[in-house]
């Protein structure tokens, strides 16, 4: 995307932003983190954090980007020149860089599974297949590299037209395919046990770790706290409302998250898996579910293709924020910087890719390299970024500018603006700080 371009329509912006948010966070990460964090109580916290923290922060990033029409770092400089606030942008760029380094590893797994499905290797013990896949260092690195090449090629050319046009087809298709999966999953024996685990809160299992993970998941799944949406919203027309797109993205993300859980957990309990399976949960359970469906392999191939698209749209936005931040001065061409940065991200991601095989013995606080990078991004860097953004928007930006940007294209939103501003200034920072302090013993 070149500076100065705009989304062709509001629905295009919504779907592109949703595509950025709805990826591994909603489809891959939420189910396994839910399984490891006690089920329903975690989901309830995730919903609360998404609505009371994620939504206001997403809207805050929209306001920063649309009001300046600039990418992350330049946007903060434009609003607060001569200060250090633009370091929020640098923090976001670094976080996206690190996030994509391990995110691309899962993207590579999806490509591997697409190959298995097409070649007929998707049979037998899926747990053993997953373990053997991630243990093959050469295959993992090749797949990760292919995922990064696809991401780089698209971003190097500019992603607006491709994402907008394809999102309007594939995002609804992903939604409909989840409905098919849920219907089949809910008709399996003992499926109700999975529904109960996923949706019925058990507060006896609530811990500081669960609260921290739920807050981190709300940031991860909405792409907030890294200024990614600052860059995306900078391409939105001044005539469009910001409130509706922000709310639409949050609701779409929550719906996909719930659908993913309803597709997976009934099958987990019915097929005898443990909900604490971890990062491989999606790759082990869903193929087993598709085995129970007529023409299951065709549906699995279609799902993996759509899942790859959802993953790529998120990857596009991560690489976009880094590329946009490094090409604003036109020192080098967009294509050149896309390849240089993409290659650097791939190199940094190699230890994460190898943390399930040759580097599996290297751990930090009991976590392998992959899980450590995930924890650093989701539970430390994103919340810190979110805290700084909430303070910046509510204290540093002029209230009249905030009001005019937020209510642009809408009417009668003064009360909503007051509530939003109050949440950003007083409630959200306190919640983030309180959760951090309460969870210091687990970091």
Describe the 3D structure.
It is built from 18 helices and 2 strands. The protein has helices at 10-21, 24-36, 40-68, 72-79, 87-119, 126-135, 137-157, 160-186, 191-199, 208-222, 228-233, 243-270, 281-290, 296-327, 334-353, 369-396, 399-407, 414-438, and strands at residues 363-364, 367-368. The protein has a two-stranded antiparallel ribbon with strand order 1-2. Helices cover 76% and strands 1% of the residues. The radius of gyration is 21 Å and the shape is globular. The longest helix has 33 residues, at 87-119. It has 443 residues and is an all-alpha fold. It has one domain (10-442): Up-down Bundle (Amino acid/polyamine transporter I).
């Amino acid at each position: 995307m070149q500076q100065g371009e705009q989304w062709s329509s509001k629905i295009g912006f919504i779907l592109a932003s949703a595509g950025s948010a709805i990826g591994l966070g909603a489809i891959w990460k939420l189910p396994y983190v839910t399984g490891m964090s006690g089920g329903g109580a975690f989901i309830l916290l995730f919903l609360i954090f998404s609505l009371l923290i994620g939504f206001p922060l997403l809207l805050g990033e929209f306001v920063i980007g649309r009001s300046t029409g600039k990418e992350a770092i330049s946007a903060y400089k434009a609003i607060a020149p001569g200060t250090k606030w633009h370091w929020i942008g640098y923090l976001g760029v670094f976080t996206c860089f690190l996030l994509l380094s391990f995110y691309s590893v899962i993207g590579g797994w999806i490509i591997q599974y697409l190959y298995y499905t097409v070649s007929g290797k998707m049979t037998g013990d899926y747990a053993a297949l997953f373990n053997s896949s991630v243990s093959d260092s050469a295959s993992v690195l090749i797949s990760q590299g292919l995922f990064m090449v696809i991401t780089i090629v698209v971003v190097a050319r500019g992603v607006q037209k491709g994402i907008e046009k394809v999102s309007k087809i594939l995002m609804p298709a992903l939604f409909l395919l989840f409905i098919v999966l849920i219907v089949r999953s809910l008709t399996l024996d003992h499926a109700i046990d999975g529904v109960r685990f996923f949706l019925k809160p058990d507060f006896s299992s609530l811990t500081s770790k669960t609260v921290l993970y739920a807050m981190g998941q709300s940031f991860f799944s909405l792409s907030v706290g890294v200024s990614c949406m600052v860059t995306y919203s900078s391409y939105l027309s001044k005539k469009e409302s910001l409130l509706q797109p922000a709310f639409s993205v949050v609701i779409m993300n929550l719906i996909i998250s719930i659908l993913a859980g309803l597709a997976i957990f009934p099958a987990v309990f019915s097929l005898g898996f443990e909900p604490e399976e971890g990062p491989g949960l999606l790759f082990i359970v869903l193929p087993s579910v598709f085995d129970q469906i007529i023409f299951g392999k065709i549906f699995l191939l279609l799902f993996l293709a759509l899942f790859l698209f959802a993953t790529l749209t998120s990857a596009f936005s991560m690489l976009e924020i880094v590329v946009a931040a490094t090409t604003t001065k036109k020192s080098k061409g967009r294509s050149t910087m896309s390849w240089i940065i993409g290659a650097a991200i791939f190199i940094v991601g190699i230890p994460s890719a190898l943390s399930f095989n040759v580097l599996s013995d290297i751990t930090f606080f009991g976590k392998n390299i992959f899980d450590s990078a995930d924890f650093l991004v989701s539970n430390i860097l994103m919340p810190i970024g979110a805290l700084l953004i909430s303070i910046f928007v509510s204290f540093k930006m002029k209230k009249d500018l905030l009001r005019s940007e937020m209510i642009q294209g809408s009417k009668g939103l003064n009360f909503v603006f007051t509530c939003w501003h109050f949440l950003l200034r007083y409630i959200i920072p306190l919640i983030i700080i309180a959760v951090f302090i309460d969870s210091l013993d687990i970091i």
